[in-house]
Batch of 3 targets.
Target 1
Amino acid sequence: MKSGFVNIFGRPNAGKSTLLNALIGEKMAIVSSKVQTTRHRIKAFLNKPGEYQIIFSDTPGIIDPKYKLHEKMMGSVKSALEDADVALLIVDSNEDLDEVDAIFSSLRLRVPCIVVLNKIDRAGNGRIALAETFFAAKPYCRQIVKISALEKVHINKLLDAVLALLPEGNPFYSEDDLSDLPTKFFVGEMIREKIYELFGDEIPYHTAVMVNEFKEKESLVKIQADIIVNRETQKAIIIGDKGKMIKQIGTNARKDIEEFIQQKVFLELFVKVRPKWRDNELQLNEYGYK
């Protein structure tokens, strides 16, 4: 029996969340074409009873913090550095390789590291060969695996490479569980994902979601959540003309939530203004950024 923590690190938009979802075969992390979508460390379990339990972790993209929110996000990365048994260092093959190397070197990981060259289906001419040669010479690189997380190309090959490095041991979690996070967390993330999908560059980064109520009734689940913004102008944009936009957020999120929990959902959303919440320690804790 093999069991251990396999944690995914990389720059924003390298494909960490897409890779986690591809490895687990379920949508565990929200995805967006916008950078810095992931704000929490998300653990997801891949179980094959009697053979292995792999605790994969998606982590926020590594950035220089500008707000307390960013500091909390980088704290999630630090916790993942401390318990990793294997590290997946994911890189978009089209990125600046020197900048990526500087980040990977700064992690100072003392566990086996697999460099995952992602987006091979979109790589420019010669970029894959260049990246392979570049990372093969780095001391932290135990192995290189080329994949497309979005197209699920070579995911099994990556899984085989992980299993070869994973230590022996008993499962850390119940083999019936997919994550150690509560359902409310995933509900909030699904609502936040729709904000990333429906609004421009500024709004998603000024927005948080807090799920206040999750009540299971006989025929449905009643969910009430607040969308937190910085300014009144952002509240007006989120609500939209005659409530059009918040209704769209709710409709889109409800479909995903119902698919996730396999139950009918009544979803009620409110928008609340909390100025400078991204730098307010008490509010960050209240919204789940601890």
Note: The two ends are 33 Å apart (CA to CA).
Target 2
Amino acid sequence: MSKLLSPVSAPDVRGCIQKVTPESAGWQYVGFEAYQLKAGEHLTLQTENNEACLVVVSGKADVSTRAEHWSGLGARMSVFEQQAPYAVYTPPQDEYQVTALTDLELAVCRAPGSGKYPARLITPDMCQYETRGVGTNRRHVCNILFGNMEAESLLVCEVITPGGNWSSYPPHKHDTDNVPAETHLEETYYHKINPEQGFVFQRVYTDDRSLDETMSVEDCGVVMVPEGYHPVGVPHGYESYYLNVMAGPSRNWIFHNDPDHEWIIEADRQQ
């Protein structure tokens, strides 16, 4: 199995099914966790030296920080309802408690922070929707904590890709700190599939092919992208969802397309 792929595990005593830390990934910035809680269960965690974005992936919850409390967050029971999520931004040196009101899937997105911004709620109407690509390259993007909302390091979005389509495509990368041409951003992909017995393919590769991995990813799997291009292909009959978390030296998403495949962009414009 590729070292870039973290398959889902059974929930631990806290309900954690995925945990990626900078230490486990071998990088500096991005941390990601996913939890599955039953109705009535509680989760309490510290942000420590990180800012965090708690995304209510599905279900409903009450969420509290040391300074704030929000009740009844959550408007979708499945990510494939194509509704924007509720999320909560929490600063470093804070604590948050989550109480599941229904069966709950929660994502915790982390990156280093100093405490510049306070805890705040992100509602579905604050998220930004856009459709990218044409034909079998069409996918639907929802920006949760991107240009729509301030943060220190974190960039968080989610993407729905129909069956038979490609996303993060044409292949692009963001692994070089070379503003304004490109920025260096580590990235995780948290995949979900409808129906859940399906799979998607994700390739991660560099120009010199010193890194070249192609993975079959099942429901709730995480792919880590430390560098290189990273397209996703979805088989016919299945829908793909993924939650992206990015962070790096600067909070700016500037990517570089693979020159071998950049012609596709101009071809799409002519359709």
Note: Residues 11-269 form a domain with the Jelly Rolls fold (CATH 2.60.120.10).
Target 3
Amino acid sequence: MILDDILQSVIQLKTIGNTDINIADIQFDSRKVEKGSVFVATRGTASDGHQYISSAIDSGAVAVICEEIPENVSKNVVFIQVENSSEALGHMASAWYGFPSSKLILVGVTGTNGKTTIVTLLYQLFRQLGHNSGLLSTVCNYVNELAVEATHTTPDALALNELLAQMVDAGCEYAFMEVSSHSVDQRRIAGLEFNGGVFTNITRDHIDYHLTFENYLKAKKQFFDTLPAETFALTNADDKNGLVMLQNSKAKKYTYSLRTIADFKTRILEHSFEGMLLDMNDREVHVSFIGKFNASNLSAVFGTAVLLGQDELEVLRIISSLKSVSGRFETLHAPSGYTAIVDYAHTPDALTNVIGTINQILQGNGRLITVVGCGGNRDKGKRPMMAREAVNGSWKAILTSDNPRFEEPQDILNDMLAGLDILQKAKSLTIVDRREAIRTACALAQSGDVVLVAGKGHEDYQIVQGVKHHFDDKEEVRKCF
């Protein structure tokens, strides 16, 4: 392609050289640069691409996109200065792959909890409605029925546009994607044309990256601020920041709720560990999901489908047949009569919601044993909070390893224990080995009890000293059975 053609949407502050040249590809990793590449020098959390400009040129880069032009420029290389290289990369990637998002009906879902469930159910729903659809999620990406492994909640701009282009080539009409706060802040979604956005909720998470809750909230809100007038923005009216998200949005505004008047109103009529009977916009529907948070997720799914022009009754019929997303309140029944629930809850609020739901269904007719840990090299401030939530809502809480990454597991557990008083500590056990912790919880469980294994959900690995080892909570629970 001609360099000029992929710079159509990029605001150039300064250009040195002729942009009417052929380019072989776009790269932001200097190690992948080959003869004819355009190198985009982006600033990351771990390194700054500007440090690798000379290396990229040595590898054959014919053009460099950067925020600061080096003092010594190469005569045979085009230099383009932009305000934000990551933003430019998004627009360039979109142009390189033929603006795939403009050829799809693309819906983005953002929030702390519920993103994966909502996008996955929308993907399943629209496939059952007869539409070719794509999915971009934490668990797995799909191009129609073709699975593509997911490495990030939201991929980098090049990988993202490549996946969207594959969806277009496969005849997809719709694409549903998780939009993480990191991807908004790092401009990975720059250049994408969304048809709608959904907000789930916002609670403490990723403070290690955003530093403050206010920055985290701004990143989520920025997604809605940039939605154009012809799109829709659907928000959770039950979250105190739900309407804040839409304050500066030009999109058509809609709400969903379990508690207040909304465009899409859902009420829980009955619930058990087998599912719920819901009233959704004055129509009853039985679903195989459990908990208020899932009723809220389904309300968002219903609202999104209706806003995309689907028939309400047909949508509700299919919702009644949808199944739980892997590792999201996934229920397993032991032969000896207790229930095990594997859930991805890894924030204090998510853990509170899951524990509250279980206790609401138990109503004192059974005990809750919770296995929970916290990830290493992440937000330390939530560790004591997670421990308190687990202990206060459970008969017994077993504190254990999650993904310790490069931290010592015992140090993480000490941070969790620091949030407990003497009485709370008496209700807890500390077992560093996660496998042993799960086995202990299952050994303690009697008929009618519930074992909650929280934190990792769908993950089939554990990261210890930076090395991934196979570990699957569901597998471990089934071994105990």
Note: The radius of gyration is 24 Å.
